[in-house]
Each structure stands twice: as structure tokens, then as C-alpha cells.
Design goal:
heterodimer, A: 4-stranded antiparallel sheet, elongated, B: alpha/beta, 22 strands
Chain lengths: ~425, ~450
């Protein structure tokens, strides 16, 4: 009995997905848990595992195409089955190429010869309809819940294989294996993000205008940043900071740490720590505008904006107030590595209470940044550079300077508070011993 | 497509075969079962059921001692073992007829006669002719295993089958084999006043069970005068007149033992010969039929379950495998293969012993990080009230995830108590879920709750 394969919500916020690559072609036999295709969701590229078994009879949405959650993307069944009525993709969905001036994507290849029958007769298994995951009615065993909590797995994105679709231990183990198998080494070969959407579909004169279909990620970035910039009244505070003490401390720390394969502690880890300590003093800055209330966060979760080939992402170091610089650095390296390989899970990039964006390594002296909700402030960090500085006694010396620009949401943080926060941050960076007072 | 007499043709009407046929029929398949003997197989006719009847009678005998403690004079001199046997046969016959009724109710044809597979879709039944099926299921079970020098003559050297049919008990018996069957027979015969010598080759009785649990059973057996010989081999026997002289070789050297009969219960061998498997080209592995996740053999359309495949030789395992096969054939997505750590084992002597999953030794050998909780029966008030304080409940829990790894219960009603813990295991509940559930007082099940609380560090009654 042939059935449609539907686009699933692979992350809690996903409404639509883009097929990056099909791993199976028409005519291939499919077992449960086989990777059918890679799907680019709003933030990451995820593998789509089959819940069906049979033969892939038709691909309805080809590479680069988009489908809303719940829309059919393929048909699976027995070779030779009549699939009329099932072989239509949802109507409003056009192939990306069709929206451009480029010729439509070629028709998928004719079905491959039928796969040989397995030795024992495998009756066509009636498949349960792909479950729609809703956060409210999550069925999971206590053991699965405990394991998910321990490993930080969002159970809403999982499909339960237990009785009546309950999420059980083996589902968590499978999710863990998937996370593990997405190590950097393997990810090198995939490079999903630079997917078809960015490859010009036809050769020819480049002088022509070209419409680039939006990737899911681009849409989200556009939506979120526009919403932030146009709804939160931003104002900006700028201060220059002497980074000499911080850089000297970093040098001392790195010299003392045992040679670690993960590398030296980065200046960003220092900055995150200084910001966290300053936020402890100014909980107002560690808050969120909620429309009818201001939410003061109980923990300090600081995100760092990380550039990706096709956008940016903000992995979050959790509970920075309770962590030391070395721990923050280790967390950060892990997250950045995942971010570059598009392998962050939603709970690793959502819900920052404060964000830092640094363009220092790109040579930028100073800039302003757009607040990353739900936080109310973002710190833009310029490059550390040598500059002449007039000392209090009037003498001029060359110092290691860095310009910080704080963007604040005026609904939450008034100017005086923002200024006091930034000035204390400067003091901590220049005289770290002050942290102990 | 060819026409077959049946969708599923089952060879063997034991607890694997008849359950598979009923499940198949429930799911809309036309099924038939071929059986050369009575429906119900070894389990109902010459295994589980009649032995439990005997154990019940044995327990009545032991209760006589309790009556004496309150001044009742019990005169056991009129014991007629023939009547004990009759009681057990009645239970077996009732249930066997019950299986016949169930088959009929589910419109399953019971074909009497010896069946031999002649092709992947055909079985030749002696005295009946050829029967065809779209799928075949081999569920022919097993038979008692003998060892060199101890061939079953069913007079001097008895199999479990003959032992269950005895009309008169011997005065002295040597039970060779300290597994579940041997331990149960030792218990029965001891209760009826037989002098019992129990011999096991390995270093402890019930070698697959947790040593700490077996220790409780061992103490009880020794107290009752059952002589136990572990790490001991029987090398041969001689019969002179009515006396059987059996030669044992143990850690302390050789010794001879004089008994009246020998009961040889050292396991069972699968019935995989003479049923036509070789004509299909199925290659046996150590006598067992190799099968896949859904018990499919290497030949399309031919399945095998129960004692003929290499899984624990237990009736409830065969039944479960039968269900899985039928559901698979009906196109159901059966959840998974049987989890070997979630199969209960039960030994029905007194005290009873029941368990599943890892033993402490196995968990150590597997390098697992685990914690154990051992709650004594006497901590549950009910056990004191009914005079069954000997026993313990033992739980092994993974140290971090708190997953239940195994449980071992020895004591009164252990074979019933195990299921609450096993349900927790299979539903992936954690010890805390059992610990916080209100249990009726006074019950032995409170011991299960306390064991779970102990694992969580807050048992009340210890």
C-alpha cells in the first residue's frame, strides 16, 4: 500500500523545510531509519529518517524544493504500485527554479528497476501516519525523559517508537547516535548549507539579474532581526576600553594551562566572563520585554554571534555567571564548531539573555548591532588595536584599545542604567581585580 | 498466486504453536495446527502444568507441619501418591481440552498426526495426507536431554516426562541437574518424604540465577535435608538388584551414592530432526533453527519459534515469539524482537525464585555502573504474619540513568511479585515510580515498594 512521505517538523519552530539533497533516488528500497534526505530547517540542516519501509516510488519535492510541514515530499510503496492520486506535491509549492527566470528543474529520472524481493515475504506494513508532534501531549517513558534531560535532547523533535508512539529509551539513544555521528570530521564532506539554493542553475551571461530563492534560515534571520529592529527602540552607547590587562591575563593563563588540543583560551571567553560578572550587578540588563511585563532572567545565558556560510547563528553558553573562563572557553569552542558545521540543536542557539557580536577579527573598529531577542541588549566588539591614549596626567602613551558599543532596548533599559553597565564593564576589563570587591 | 489450504500452517500445538495460530486467526488468517499428540505440548501435558499441580500438593504436605505447630495432629500415613498423580493429570487434561476448545473457537483446524515438511508450502501428515500453507511455522518444541552413560530407560534413569508420570515415588532419588527442573523435582520429592540427592556440575544451583538469591534457596533446601552436591559430575551408575549405585566425582574426590532411581534433568534438545527441515535446505546451528528478527528462517515463507530456535526454552518465550510471527505475517509493525533482559524466569519450589535481566555477576562482567538494593522479606509485615520471612527482593539499577537492569526475588509468591518490577522495566519506569506508588498494607508487594525505595535511598522498614 503506497503512502505519501510527509515533511515533518524537525525542529520545534519549523514551519517549512527545504530539501537540500535526496540521499535516495526513485526505485531505491527504503528501510526504517534510512536517511531519506537532508532538510534545511529554520536554523539547521537535519537528516530526515524514514519511518516507512518499501520502495521510493516518486520524489515529489526535488533537491532545493520547499515543503510546508505536513506536505507530501515523496511516495513510498511496493514496486509497480498504482500511485495515482498520491503523486502530486502540494499545489502552492513551486520548485524554486520555477520562480526564477531559469528553466524548470529537469523531471526526476524514470523509476529504477524494482528492488528484488527479500527472501521471506514481507507483507506491506500499514504504516501509522507520520505523527504530528505537539509539545503539549508528549508521550515519553520516565527513563526516556530522564535521559533526554541529561543529554539536553528536545523530545519534541523525536518520534516515539514505543507503544502508541511513546518516546522510549531507544529513541533517545538513536538521537544521541545521530548527534555523535555529526562530528566535524564527517560534516566536512557534507557541507549542506552551501546547498543548491546558492548555485546558479544555468550557465550563461552573468549580467542578468538573478532572483535567489530564500533559504529557510535567511527567512528566519530576516524576520527576527526586522522584528527586533522595528519593535524594540534601540539606542547605542559607545566606550573605549584598554584591553591590555585582559590580554596580559590571557597570555598568563594560556602559558599556565596544560597543552590542550582544543587550543588557547580565546579573548571572547574573557569578554563573556566580564559581561556575566557585570550583568550580576545590573540584572535589569539581563531582562526581556514581554509586552505586559519585564522578565528578569534567573540565569545568565550569553550568546556569541557566529558567522556561517549562509547566515549567522547565536550559540549560547549557559549559566555563565556560575562558570569560570576556562569552562566558558571550552563550551564556546564546542558550540562554535557545531555552528560552523550547521549542527547546533535548537536548545543550543535559542533563549540567550544577552548577546555579544564581535567583528574584531574582520578588522572592524566599531559597529552597532541589532538586539537578539529575547535579550534586551547586545554588545558589539571592535578590533583590539594600538592607539595613542592620553593618560590622566596628560602624557600620551600607546595602548591596546578596543571599542565597545552597547545596543539597548529602551523599553527595558534606560540610558543611565545602560551607561552605568557599560562603564562598569570597562572598569572590570581594565582592572579585573575590581571584580573581587 | 497458488492456492493454499491455509494462510498459516503450524507444526506443533504447544504454547508456541497454538498461540501463534490463535493470534493469526484473530488477525484474519486461516490457520491450522498439526499435532501428533495432545494439544498443549510439553508445557500442558508433561511439563509446566502437571509439575505445578505436584508442587501444589507438595506444599499441602509441608503445610501439615505448620498445622502440627498449632497442635493439629496430622496423619500423613494414608498418602496415596497415585492420587497425587491423578490430580496433576486432571489439571493437564483439563487444560489440554481447553486448548482444543480455544482452537475450535478461533476456527483453527487441529490436524492429528505426525507431520513432515515436504516443501516450503507443504506438510505431509501421517494418516491424513498433504496439507498446504502459504506460510509454515515450525514449533515442534524440545525433549529431555540425556548424557553419555545415562540413557533414559524410564525405570532406573528417568526423564522429567517419566518423573511426572510416576505412580509411586522412590525412597531415595538422585537428581542430576541443578537447573529449574531439577530444583523443582527435588522440592516435590523432598516434600513427599523422599531422600533427595541433588547434583549440579557447576559451582552453584540454578547457575543462570543471581547467586545472592540462590543462596536463600540453598539454605532452605539444606534445612529440609536435601543433600546438595555442586561442582560434581556423575560418571556412571551400576544396578545391583533394586539398588542403584551412582558414581560421583566432585571437588572432594570420588564417592558412590546408593539410591533407588536417578532423575536426569540436564536440559532439553530441540526437536529439529525428522521433520523435513533438511529437505528445505535449512542448516541447523547446534540443533537449533537459525532465524531473523521475525523468526523467519532462511527459506521464504518458513518460520520457526520456541524451543527449536536459540532463545530461552520457556513456554512464555515460545508464546511471545508465536505472537510476533503472526503479527508480522499480518503486516503489523511489531515493536521489536524479544528483549532478553525483559524475559522473566521462574522456579516454582518453596521458596520461589523469579527474576529477569542482569544478575549482579553479569552486570559486573559487562562493566556496567550499577547500584543494588536488597530488601529482606521480613521487612514487609505480611511475611511475618504468614510465617514466610525467608526471602529477599533484589534490584539492580544503572547508576546514572536509574534504568532497571534486573531484579531477583526469592521467597513466597516471588513468581507473582516479579511482574510489577518487570512492568516497570518494560514501560521504562524508574525505581522512584514504584517507590512513590501507594501499595496496600499488608502485602508482600510492599516489599517491592520498599526495594525500590531502598534503591532511592529511603526505605522505611529496614
Amino acid at each position: 500500500m503506497a503512502e505519501q512521505v510527509l515533511m515533518l517538523a524537525l525542529s520545534p519552530t519549523m514551519e517549512e523545510g527545504t530539501i537540500v539533497t535526496w540521499h535516495k533516488k526513485e526505485g531505491d528500497s527504503i528501510a526504517q531509519s534510512d536517511i531519506l534526505c537532508e532538510v534545511e530547517t529554520d536554523k539547521a540542516t537535519m537528516e530526515y529518517e524514514s519511518v516507512n519501509e518499501g520502495t521510493l516510488l516518486k520524489i515529489l519535492v526535488s533537491d532545493g524544493g520547499q515543503a510546508k510541514v505536513g506536505d507530501p515530499i515523496a511516495v513510498v510503496g511496493e514496486p509497480g504500485e498504482d500511485i495515482s492520486g498520491l503523486d502530486k506535491a502540494a499545489e502552492r509549492k513551486a520548485e524554486p527554479a520555477a520562480a526564477t527566470a531559469q528553466p524548470a528543474a529537469p523531471e526526476p529520472a524514470a523509476p529504477q528497476p524494482a528492488a528484488p524481493q527479500p527472501a521471506a515475504p514481507q507483507p506491506a506494513a500499514p504504516q501509522p501516519a507520520a505523527p504530528q508532534v505537539s509539545a503539549g501531549q508528549l508521550k515519553a517513558s520516565p527513563l526516556a525523559r530522564k535521559m533526554a534531560t541529561e543529554h539536553g535532547i528536545d523530545m519534541r523533535v523525536l518520534q516515539g517508537s514505543g507503544p502508541a508512539g511513546r518516546i522510549v529509551k531507544r529513541d533517545i539513544e538513536k538521537a544521541l547516535r545521530q548527534v555523535a555521528s555529526r562530528g566535524p570530521a564527517e560534516a566536512v564532506g557534507i557541507q549542506g548549507p552551501a546547498g543548491p539554493a546558492f548555485i546558479p542553475t544555468a550557465a550563461g551571461p552573468t549580467a542578468k539579474d538573478e532572483r535567489i530563492p530564500l533559504s529557510g534560515k535567511r527567512k528566519i534571520i530576516a524576520q527576527r532581526l526586522a522584528e527586533s529592529k522595528f519593535s524594540a527602540p534601540h539606542y547605542y552607547l559607545r566606550i573605549d576600553v584598554d584591553a591590555g590587562a585582559m590580554m596580559a591575563a590571557r597570555q598568563r593563563l594560556n602559558a599556565r594551562l596544560p597543552k590542550d588540543p582544543v587550543g588557547k583560551v580565546s579573548p571572547n571567553a574573557f569578554l563573556i566572563k566580564f559581561v556575566a560578572e557585570t550583568l550580576k550587578k545590573y540584572p535589569v540588563v539581563n531582562s526581556s520585554w514581554q509586552g505586559d511585563a519585564i522578565l528578569r532572567f534567573g540565569k545568565i545565558d550569553i550568546a556569541l554571534a557566529v558567522a556561517q556560510e549562509d547566515g549567522l547563528i547565536t550559540p549560547v553558553v549557559r549559566d555563565c555567571g556560575a562558570k569560570g573562563i576556562v569552562q566558558i572557553d571550552r563550551d564556546l569552542k564546542l558550540l562554535i564548531d557545531k555552528a560552523r558545521n550547521n549542527k547546533l540543536t535548537p536548545e543550543e542557539y535559542n533563549g540567550a539573555t544577552f548577546t555579544i557580536s564581535s567583528l574584531g577579527t574582520s578588522g572592524i573598529l566599531e559597529f552597532t548591532a541589532i538586539i537578539n531577542p529575547p535579550g534586551s541588549a547586545i554588545l558589539a566588539v571592535g578590533r583590539i588595536h594600538n592607539a595613542p591614549v592620553a593618560g590622566e596626567d596628560g602624557t600620551i602613551s600607546v595602548r591596546s584599545q578596543m571599542i565597545l558599543t552597547l545596543s539597548c532596548d529602551h523599553r527595558v533599559i534606560d540610558g543611565a542604567v545602560g551607561a552605568a553597565f557599560l562603564s562598569d564593564l570597562k572598569a572590570f576589563i581594565e582592572y579585573p581585580i575590581d571584580l573581587l570587591y | 498466486m497458488a492456492n493454499y489450504d491455509y494462510d498459516l500452517l503450524v507444526l506443533g500445538a504447544g504454547p508456541g504453536g497454538y498461540v501463534a495460530a490463535i493470534r493469526a486467526s484473530q488477525l484474519g488468517m486461516k490457520a491450522a495446527v498439526i499435532e501428533k499428540d495432545k494439544p498443549g505440548g510439553v508445557c500442558l501435558n508433561i511439563g509446566c502444568i502437571p509439575s505445578k499441580a505436584l508442587i501444589h500438593q507438595a506444599e499441602l504436605m509441608r503445610c501439615g507441619k505448620e498445622l502440627e505447630e498449632i497442635g493439629v495432629k496430622v496423619d500423613a500415613s494414608g498418602l496415596d501418591y497415585g492420587k497425587v498423580l491423578a490430580f496433576s493429570r486432571k489439571a493437564a487434561d483439563t487444560l489440554s481440552r481447553g486448548v482444543g476448545y480455544l482452537l475450535k473457537k478461533n476456527k483453527i483446524d487441529l490436524i492429528g498426526g505426525q507431520g513432515v515438511i515436504t516443501s516450503a508450502h507443504e506438510i505431509e501428515v501421517k494418516g491424513h495426507g498433504k496439507v498446504t500453507g502459504k506460510n509454515l511455522l515450525v514449533a515442534t518444541g524440545s525433549r529431555p536431554r540425556s548424557i553419555p552413560g545415562f540413557d533414559f530407560d524410564e525405570k532406573t534413569v528417568l526423564s522429567s516426562t517419566a518423573a511426572l508420570m510416576l505412580e509411586k515415588l522412590p525412597k531415595r532419588v538422585c537428581v542430576l541437574g541443578g537447573g529449574a527442573i531439577g530444583v523443582e523435582f527435588a522440592h516435590i520429592m523432598n516434600a513427599f518424604g523422599v531422600e533427595v540427592h541433588l547434583v549440579e556440575m557447576l559451582d552453584h544451583l540454578l547457575p543462570l540465577e543471581d547467586e545472592e538469591a540462590v543462596e536463600v534457596l540453598l539454605r532452605s533446601f539444606k534445612k529440609r535435608g536435601i543433600k546438595i552436591y555442586t561442582s560434581t559430575k556423575a560418571t556412571g551408575y551400576k544396578k545391583s538388584g533394586k539398588v542403584v549405585k551412582i558414581s560421583l566425582e566432585g571437588k572432594e574426590g570420588k564417592q558412590d551414592l546408593e539410591v533407588d532411581q536417578i532423575l536426569l534433568v540436564v536440559g532439553r534438545v530441540p526437536n529439529t530432526d525428522g521433520i523435513g527441515l533438511e529437505s528445505l535446505g535449512i542448516k541447523l546451528e547446534k540443533g537449533f533453527v537459525p532465524v531473523g528478527d521475525y523468526y523467519q528462517t532462511s527459506v521464504a515463507g518458513v518460520y520457526a519459534i520456541g524451543d527449536v530456535v536459540n532463545s530461552p526454552m520457556l513456554a512464555h518465550v515460545a508464546s511471545k515469539e508465536g505472537e510476533i510471527t503472526a503479527e508480522h505475517l499480518a503486516g503489523h509493525q511489531t515493536p521489536v524482537k524479544l528483549d532478553p533482559n525483559a524475559i522473566p524466569g521462574a522456579v516454582y519450589c518453596e521458596p520461589q525464585l523469579a527474576s529477569f535481566g542482569y544478575t549482579e555477576k553479569a552486570a559486573k562482567e559487562a562493566g556496567l555502573k550499577f547500584e543494588k538494593a536488597v530488601f529482606p522479606y521480613r521487612g514487609a509485615g505480611k511475611s511475618v504474619a504468614i510465617g514466610k520471612t525467608e526471602g529477599l527482593l533484589k534490584l539492580l539499577v544503572e547508576a546514572e540513568t536509574r534504568e532497571i537492569l534486573g531484579a531477583h526475588v526469592v521467597g513466597a509468591e516471588a513468581t507473582e511479585l516479579i511482574h510489577e518490577i518487570l512492568l516497570a522495566k518494560t514501560a521504562e519506569l524508574l525505581p522512584e515510580d514504584i517507590a512513590v506508588m501507594t501499595h496496600a498494607h499488608p502485602t508482600l508487594s510492599e516489599g517491592v515498594m520498599e526495594m525500590a525505595r531502598m534503591a532511592e535511598g529511603w526505605a522505611i522498614h529496614v
